[in-house]
Amino acid sequence: MMAGILRELSSACVVVSRDFSPFFTPTNGPQYFSRAERQTSDLEFSDLPQPLGAKVYQVLKTGSAISGFKYEPEHLPGTVYNVNIVPFQRPASGLPASVLLMAEDLTQSQQLQRLEIEAANLRPRQNHG
Questions:
Q1: By C-alpha distance, which of 124, 104, 35, 6 is closest to 44?
Q2: Burial class (CB in 10 A: 0-12, 13-18, 19+), 65
Q3: Which residues fall within 8 angstroms of residue 112, CB to CB, at 6 or more apart?
Q4: Which pLDDT belongs to residue 88?
Q5: What is the pLDDT of residues 9-49, one digit of tens each?
Q6: What's the CA dihedral at 2, 68, 54, 4 to 10 degrees?
Q7: CA-CA-CA-CA dihedral for 4, 95, 103, 11, to nearest 10
Q8: Cis? peptide before 73, omega within 30° of 0
Q9: Using one digit for the tens of pLDDT, what is the confidence trace for 75-103?
Q10: Which of 18, 47, 117, 122 has the fewest CB atoms within 10 Å, i.e. is most exposed?
Q11: What is the DSSP letter of 46?
């Protein structure tokens, strides 16, 4: 049931287990994170960019979510993601059995915002008086 829900989201979603495998990628996670030279579409923990992998590790170890941070991939200049990493499947031990990483591509909305600001700055100022 959860897989069906995650497939409906427009964001990239990746579930990482406590032992860092297997990855469950119900949506376009591999498209967001896989290296171009990979021969398979299966995503591995090592495919995650180091800053995201470190945050996934932190959430697995602490059980505390990391919400709403911006991530700009080095290999894709101008691309901006809003990333949330939340504990998933919390057993009685208190630490998560896995975490859910969600990345929403904000690139187009950021570009649109920039264009709106530039357009507003180009408009002639009206004199009142």
A1: 35
A2: middle
A3: none
A4: 80
A5: 557 788 888 888 767 665 555 556 655 555 556 778 888 88
A6: 10
A7: 10
A8: no
A9: 888 888 899 999 986 667 778 889 989 88
A10: 122
A11: G
End-to-end CA distance of the chain: 64
Long-range residue pairs from 83-89, CB within 8 A, at least 24 positions apart, any chain: 83/52, 83/55, 85/52, 85/55, 85/56, 85/59, 86/59, 87/59, 87/63, 88/15
Distance, in Å, from the CA atom of 57 to the CA atom of 11, rounded to the nearest integer, reads 21
The better pLDDT of the pair 102, 129 is held by 102
Report how far residue 114's alpha carbon sits from residue 56's, in angstroms, rounded to the nearest whole number.
31
DSSP state of 42: -
Q: What is the pLDDT of residue 4?
A: 53
Instruction: In whole angstroms, give the CA distance from residue 72 to residue 81.
Output: 6
pTM equals 0.71
- Non-local CB neighbours of 36 within 8 Å, separated by 6+ positions: none
State mean pLDDT over 119-127.
Answer: 73
Encoded tokens for 42: 């299966």
